Amino acid sequence: MSGTIELLEAQPNPPEPGTLALLAAFIDAARACASACTACAAGCLAESDAGRLAQCAATCLDCADVCDAAARIALRPLSAARREAMAALVQACAGMCELTARECFRHEMHHQHCRLCMEASRACLEACETLLEAI
Amino acid sequence: MSGTIELLEAQPNPPEPGTLALLAAFIDAARACASACTACAAGCLAESDAGRLAQCAATCLDCADVCDAAARIALRPLSAARREAMAALVQACAGMCELTARECFRHEMHHQHCRLCMEASRACLEACETLLEAI
Amino acid sequence: MSGTIELLEAQPNPPEPGTLALLAAFIDAARACASACTACAAGCLAESDAGRLAQCAATCLDCADVCDAAARIALRPLSAARREAMAALVQACAGMCELTARECFRHEMHHQHCRLCMEASRACLEACETLLEAI
Amino acid sequence: MSGTIELLEAQPNPPEPGTLALLAAFIDAARACASACTACAAGCLAESDAGRLAQCAATCLDCADVCDAAARIALRPLSAARREAMAALVQACAGMCELTARECFRHEMHHQHCRLCMEASRACLEACETLLEAI
Q1: Which of C30, C38, C11 minimizes the C-alpha distance to C86?
Q2: CB atoms D57 and B45 under 8 Å
Q3: What structural domains does chain C harbor?
Q4: Are A43 and C54 in contact (CB under 8 A)?
Q5: Are C40 and C113 in contact (CB under 8 A)?
Q6: Which chain C positions have a beta carbon within 8 Å of D59's beta carbon?
Q7: If you placed Cys at D54, which of B50, D90, D103, D130 could pair as Cys (CB 3.0 to 4.6 Å)?
């Protein structure tokens, strides 16, 4: 966690500490969600009931892609010009996380990777919403 | 171009032909823009006046990331549930393309990679706007 | 196709025309393969026999990730220092394409997305091998 | 750290604990390196001496792409068939990390983002080498 704060603090003209902390929390949540979604999609495909989990895997793939892109972009300095596009991207990220959390909730009793992915996407959704209020 | 249409047509329950054509055009424009942005950022960094082009390179990196993610997600079937998150992502893509087109316009007289990137990001911006009206 | 050649020619100190043409062909093949793999994985997950296609989808996901990363990196100038790491990456790309071609071959009679993906991964494998001989 | 171990343990037929721990350590190191490289490239571009740091930024971009792709692929089950391609990818990752560590070492006295990136790429290089001995 503190690693990401350090990365943002090391850039020239870092954002003020409050925004920086929210950005770092978002980046960590998005990275963790991207990993959980990638692992959950792969886990779904390796289960004996993969056919029933296909929709879950598909949802996770979208979520992983948007989380990874959003994390990368949030690691770059947040200029005023980029703020609007960044907000739309975080909105997209929140939407995909919500779909993933809902889909994995349907399977979390039977599959541990769905439980972990549900938790990670809920945490990322929350980080998105907190960031959207601040930027 | 037709390659991407074929990819979308080959999926079960493809969208109706009009939407499918717009999705394919968006995917092609986003992929082309991601490549042009990646090459332009690398080109900026390899120029003797790289210092003056640093802002251009940074803008291109954001644009490449969001274009690649959007293209991947658009290649997956467009369920009703994903429509809203997808629209926010295309909105983010449009915003980044607009910033890139504006930034590269400042350098396109002196650097061919900026001219190509300006054209690709304008084309992608247009494809975003057309898609947003339809989905 | 010619678009990618232009992108590489526009960079300062482009490679000599023969290498440049091979790099451009590789980039185009890798981008096309990444798209075909992304669409095929999504197609597999949307089929009624998704359970039987789970292994195919998993293989396609790996292939898409390595193809997209390799295409991005090949769009940046090929310094002598990067040559060895680039060659290992193209080797990894070739290996994933071979697995994908073999897996999709098993389903290409029944699923058009597998036929298209098999063709794209074979073409990318060939482009990898041609590039590896030249760099 | 333990988060990634949990993700791998949650998949059906996880690798034996020793290999699983090495994979998790590699994934964490590659994700951390991708973030450090992305932030360092952006930091280089935002410095007043961006021109002098252009080569550093370019090296970091390659490294971020290969680290992110390798982390994603390592999150999917390691079948025997994929082992060879995976090894080539980890080899590519090691090569890019070595170049990044060497390049950032030249600037680490003056730029904190280069010091953090040097540390992250050295740690990832080590994780690559440990994994390569085991798979």
Answers
A1: C30
A2: yes
A3: 16-134 (1.20.1270)
A4: no
A5: yes
A6: 82
A7: B50
pLDDT digits (tens, 9 = 90+) for A3-58: 999 999 999 989 999 999 999 999 999 999 999 999 999 999 999 999 999 999 99
Question: Which amino acid type is present at position C16?
Answer: E
Q: Give B59-100 pLDDT, tens digit per residue.
A: 999 999 999 999 999 999 888 889 999 999 999 999 999 999
Residues of chain A neighbouring B61 (CB-CB closer than 8 A): 76
Q: Give residues with Cβ within 8 angstroms of A71, minimum separation 6.
A: A26, A27, A30, A31, A34, D35
Rg of chain A taking only CA atoms, in angstroms: 15
Q: Tokens standing for A39?
A: 């692992």
Q: Where are the alpha helices (DSSP H) in chain D?
A: 2-9, 17-46, 54-74, 83-105, 112-134
Q: Which of A11, A15, A130 is nearest to A82 (CA)?
A: A15
**Alpha-helical regions (H) of chain A:** 2-9, 17-46, 54-74, 83-105, 112-134
Q: Which of A36, D35, A38, A63 is nearest to C62 (CA)?
A: A38
Interface probe for D, chosen from C11, C66, C67 (most Cβ of D below 10 Å), is C66
What the block records as the tokens of D118 is 């040097």
Interface chains of chain C (3 or more CB pairs under 8 Å): A, B, D
Tell me the two tokens of residue C126: 């060939």
* Residue D83 near residue D117 (C-beta atoms within 8 A): no
CA distance B104 to D18: 50
Residue C97 and residue C67 in contact, taking contact as beta carbons nearer than 8 Å = yes
Neighbours of chain D (3+ CB pairs under 8 A): A, B, C
Confidence of residue B1 (pLDDT cuts 50, 70, 90): very low
Instruction: Check C88 against D92: CB less than 8 A apart.
Output: yes
D114 close to D47: Cβ distance less than 8 angstroms: no
Q: Shortest CA distance to B41 belongs to which of C54, D42, A6?
A: D42
Could you tell me which chain A residue has the CA closest to the CA of C43?
A: A58
Residues of C in contact with D77 (CB under 8 A): 58
3-state SS of C7-56?
Answer: HHHCCCCCCCHHHHHHHHHHHHHHHHHHHHHHHHHHHHHHCCCCCCCHHH
pLDDT by residue for chain D (135 residues), tens digit each? 349 999 999 999 899 999 999 999 999 999 999 999 999 999 999 999 999 999 999 999 999 999 999 999 999 988 888 999 999 999 999 999 999 999 999 999 999 999 999 999 999 999 999 999 998
Query: Would you place residue C1 in the very low, low, confident or very high pLDDT band (cuts 50, 70, 90)?
Result: very low
∠ CA C121-C127-C130 to the nearest 5 degrees?
145
> Are the beta carbons of A42 and D75 separated by less than 8 Å?
yes
Q: How far apart are CA A131 and CA A89, in angstroms?
A: 11
